Amino acid sequence: MALFEEEMDTSPMVSSLLSSLANYSNLPTGSKEHEEAENNEEGARPSKKPVKAPQLGTLMGVYLPCIQNIFGVILFLRMTWMVGIGGVFGSFIIVFMCCSTTMLTAISMSAIATNGVVPAGGSYYMISRSLGPEFGGAVGICFYLGTTFAGAMYILGCIEILLIYIVPQMAIFKIEGLEGAEAEAALLNNMRVYGTIVLSFMSLVVFVGVKYVNKLALVFLACVILSILAVYAGVIKTAIDPPVFPVCLLGNRTLISKGYDVCAKVIEIDNETVTTKLWMSFCDSDSLNATCDDYFNNNNVTEIQGIPGVTSGILAENLFGTYLEKGVILEKRGLASEVDPDSPVTNSNRYVLADITSFFTLLVGIYFPSVTGIMAGSNRSGDLRDAQKSIPIGTIAAITTTSTVYMSCVVLFGACIEGVVLRDKFGEGVNGNLVIGTLAWPSPWVIVIGSFFSTCGAGLQSLTGAPRLLQAISRDGIIPFLRVFGHGKANGEPTWALLLTASICEIGIIIASLDAVAPILSMFFLMCYMFVNLACALQTLLRTPNWRPRFKFYHWALSFLGMSLCLSLMFICSWYYAIVAMGIATCIYKYIEFCGAEKEWGDGIRGISLSAARFALMRLEEGPPHTKNWRPQLLVLVSMDADQNVEQPRLLSLTNQLKAGKGLTIVGTSVQGTFLDNYTEAQRADQSLRKLMEAEKVKGFSQVVISSNLRDGTSHLIQVGGLGGLKHNTVMVSWPRNWKQPECHQQFRNFIEVVRETTIASMAMLVPKNISSYPSNGERFTEGYIDVWWIVHDGGMLMLLPFLLRQHKVWRKCKMRIFTVAQMDDNSIQMKKDLITFLYHLRIDAAVEVVEMHDSDISAYTYEKTLIMEQRSQILKQMHLTKNEMEREIQSITDSSRGSIRRKNPSAGRSRHSVDEGASVAEQPEDESVAVSDPKQVQLIHSKNASTPTSPTSPTSPTAPAGGASTWTDNKRSDKGKTFLSANPEAGKDLFNMKPSQVDLRRMHTALRLNEVIMKKSKEAKLVLLNMPGPPKNRTNRTNPMDNAVYRDYPVFTDIQVMIFLGFGCLLAFFRLYGFGGMVFNFLTATFAIQWAILVQGYFQFSHEGKIHLGVINLINAEFACAVVLISFGAVLGKTSPLQLLVMALLEVPVFAVTEWAVLKYLRINDAGGSILIHLFACYFGLGVTFVLYRPSLNKGHAKENTSYQSDILALMGTLFLWVFWPSFNSALTLKGDDQHRAILHTFIGLSASTLTAFALSAMLNRNGKLTMADIQNVTLAGGVTVGASVDMMISPAAAYALGMMGCTACMLGYKYLSPFLARRFRIQDQCGIHNLHGLTGLISCAAGICAILMANEDTYGPSLYEIFSHRAPVEGDPKLQELQMVIPGLQPGLGRTAREQALFQVAAVFSTMGAAALGGILTGFVLKLPFLAPPSDDLCFDDELFFDVPPDYDSPRHHHLNNIVATEDSAA
Hints:
Layout: H1 14-22, H2 29-42, H3 58-70, H4 73-77, H5 79-113, H6 123-131, H7 133-166, H8 180-208, H9 210-240, E1 246-250, E2 253-254, E3 266-269, E4 272-275, H10 277-282, H11 294-298, E5 301-305, H12 360-367, H13 376-379, H14 387-416, H15 419-422, H16 435-439, H17 444-476, H18 495-511, H19 514-542, H20 556-573, H21 575-595, H22 604-620, E6 634-637, H23 650-659, E7 665-672, H24 675-695, E8 701-707, H25 710-720, E9 730-733, H26 745-760, E10 764-766, E11 785-790, H27 797-805, E12 815-822, H28 828-841, E13 847-852, E14 858-859, H29 860-879, H30 883-892, H31 906-911, E15 931-932, H32 935-947, H33 972-983, H34 985-992, H35 998-1017, E16 1023-1026, H36 1045-1067, H37 1075-1101, E17 1103-1104, E18 1107-1108, H38 1112-1131, H39 1138-1163, H40 1171-1188, H41 1205-1227, H42 1234-1261, H43 1269-1274, H44 1278-1282, H45 1293-1321, H46 1330-1351, H47 1354-1357, H48 1361-1364, H49 1375-1383, H50 1395-1424, H51 1452-1468
Helix pairs in contact: 3-14, 5-12, 5-14, 5-19, 5-20, 6-7, 6-19, 7-8, 7-17, 7-18, 7-19, 7-21, 8-9, 8-17, 8-18, 9-17, 12-19, 12-20, 17-18, 19-20, 19-21, 19-22, 20-21, 25-26, 29-35, 36-37, 36-38, 36-41, 37-38, 37-39, 38-39, 38-40, 39-50, 40-46, 40-50, 41-42, 42-45, 45-46, 46-50
């Protein structure tokens, strides 16, 4: 075990751990800890007796205590009344609902109780350890209040039994002779007096010794069981011999039994009619002719049996409820009575009246306390032999038993007792007997005495258990103001808790009504049960590793059902009591959350928080926040001193003022070193950050990283701060202190790198300057301004910052001013109006001022500063220093090497050193600047100073101060500098004669002027906010060659080159005797057309400031124009001279360029593959030309208009070149990325489909079933044209394949049938079938593109819809455009077209392009017919011999072919 010597202090040996587990005493853990704490605080106490091992089993430890607690006062005092009012059916529903709730709660409780030991406190410990201290404390207090009010209810029940059923004469406030409210008030006052007496006595008993209560518990339990058995015995007896309990009715109204001696109006005594006591109750005298009550006169007196028996069939009458209003007379159903509706009710005190208004929800609230008490077993877990076995079995068995008793009692009471008796709450109609007692056997007194002792015992149990629950809560320390109640007597008895419990219980006694107190404790118990179910459900769903209950018969759905039932019953019982109970629990919860002790019990709420956090983080990953919800999520970068204290504490003050506890705040710092060596140092830094954050009330997270150098550590914080979508979007870092000092140079460079990294990460950056002067959180500004210098639009960040700051009390009374800068050509008045309108729409109250900055002369100081910066860069480059040497050299070069520009006194320039070179321009004296009127004067001043012998900048100056050279370098680097200067004197001379860049000069001038204006305007402001330009993206002033467009576009350019010169050239050489013409004239025409198109298209599309900007993209566009000419060339192949072809190109390119410009500029169409502007235009332009150049003699063919084996192979090679490179042609001008990817895929799929279809159709349409080379050479390319218009759209691969097949079919049929028809009927001699390959397929492609546009929507394309269909993007100023630009940076405003509008523009483009092309072709044809263009004659068409020096055997294949024909004829003859 020597390996683990160092871990022994923090990690115990396994053997000792097992020993401690085996000797676990099963004492309440909370009590044990608090006893130890008290011993530590109060000193040693006398040793206590050893605790005996627990011996209770399931029966004595769980089952019987639960039985005793569940059976209570409601069963004996209100159960029969509930059955009478609610009916058997309604009461059974109430009982079943309440019992189901407790059963489901018991299942959840069993799972929790068997997942470890439940110490004293029962449900409080279950909930607090499952849901956390906040929920545990809130529900624990509710459970405590419920138990306390239960004690009040039991005491009230005890007093009710005593004063109504046992000794009514004990009433202090006499009820006899009182009616209505007076009688009710007297009863309540009696309850209050005796209830207070009984409460005091019980509290005294509990205080003196709880052991006496425990000893009497068995007696009380026996009383409960005997009473219930007596009821069942009485039910059995009613089936054999029903007891005699007559009830007297007048009409159908129930009479009070003490109001009569005989249930009759008159009786016969010695043949004489004598009036009864009942007669005297309703008449004014005892004579037979006395004036009596009308109802008394009109109705007879009837005596019925109060308990007819279980076999009487009374159950049918009692099946449904009879809900009564307060003061209503109890009436028997089905018994007739004569009532005058106009006469008022008199002598109502003679009838049994309803004492309260009853309704279903009231019954639920009154009954529910009778099913509580299910926690009795779990509260005794410390006394059980095997708690994890006994608690589930005992509790569920007890609930099953009591539920069975309750449900059977509902049915039996309804089957045995008359309805009016059931509704008689206090037994006034049955001689004042307890109604359930009338059913009991052998005597009603069994129930009366049993229920009396039962309620006494239950009251004592409540007064015993409630203080201990409060003591357990107090000892946990989660509610600070309750800690005093955690102390007690020396033996641990909770004296103070008992006193508080008695006081709260007195509140229930003062209420005095059992029916009013019952719903109150129902609320508290239901809330407790609800959270027990919630705890079980959450633990099950969260699947926490510690959740391993031995009780397996549970499920989260049952727990949720139980929780739902509890919540429903709360509002069913009393919605206002439910709201009050929830309000109390909420107040306690928030109090514990804000003021309570922090406890970590591994509760489920923490698990919920983790799950909710994970869910929220996953949701944040779905997309960036909406601009309405955007706020700065801060990463605050701070530095630590040697003692790991924050150097800029006011940064956190500003953070608090800016954030106000909202959003994300991360305070980060870095520690230099390694993780192994500096971990404790990082821990100290983290603690320091947390303490400062707590002191400054910054709600957020601290983060400390350890890195080999501070620069990398800061970079790591910027990169990895936050988690998932919850990341910072703003970095706050203080302006570096003493940045002008050489020793702080690295700090300043680190700051510059932070600026660059923040910019690269697309984050905002806040840089407070002079942070030590910022106000603390305790300061208040009573007045002042926050000035915003809005120079460039930054997305609204500058407007948001003062708004957020003014939410804080420090800046609340500061006013906001916004300054913006106007240039010479700006309308400052209109700018101010626009800015005021903009702020109005932003709902920001601020003063607006437009500052006009006029172009002024560049000061000599500005000139000098710019020159010095450029000289430094040039020196370092020429000295060829390494990177590290260069960084060190920057600080060693001082301004003494150059001196100041001569001002008024030349000697001042020699003596002064610009030590403030790095300072802000505002720190320079204004009288040292000299106005320079124009650049020529700048040059004169520069030359004069540079050549002055007395200038200290000259390396040969004899008057240079001693040691002046040391200002360039020091130590070893001085030698390198001297060597460089001595070896390169010309370079040194050029260096000092250099002149600054005009761009840099202008920037320095603007910074100087702007700084002066800000200092002047915002001198009195409390805070000045301005946005700074971002750092140069190019850190080294070098360009990356791979960023040049040539590397992106040149591969596509070469592919199209191959198509133009090889593909078209070979394909056009398919005629047997016109191979030279096809290839060479293609070469000639293509070269000329490209050059001409560069100029023409450049004028229309690429001309800026009178110049044509040339690039690879221009060449690609020119090659597209060349392709148009070459396609048209196919229509007149072999029938034109080279001069005609050049003239045709000369005319076609401008027509094409104008058409292209007009369509793209005004119609704004989508045509990625050029189906409209290339294929359709070229086709109909060529057809127009060939229509004019019609040769009738060629209509039936030409002798040389045929192919050979070699020419077909050459043409097929051209087809293959075109086929292979066509995807580059279609994707050349699409958007880079997914659009280009789709274009390549769709083109390849379309070409593949047309190729396969072409082979199939060629064989099918040939009579011999053989392949035709003309079909293979042309038709296979149709798919590339057909997908062109929709090539970059989200059409499916299947659609691309279908378009390829359709285009191939149309092209094949066109060659077969349409071309001969056009030549014969319309004088269109389409030599190469361009109408088939480019016209028909182009029309199909356009139709497909229009359909794709109509079907395009955001559901399919997402935000990229507005990139592909740029003209459908929202217009400038549309809020949706801003939302889209957050997702797609750089998205340009569009025209706001709908899909239908864009489709209509596509149709317009098709017809306008075809019309312009046909018209241009016809006009060009007329020009080509001019005789001086040397067109070939009909006989010399399709022959190279007219234009080329051909070899002697160029037509040998023809002669060979003719010889074969002659030989064949001879053999046939």
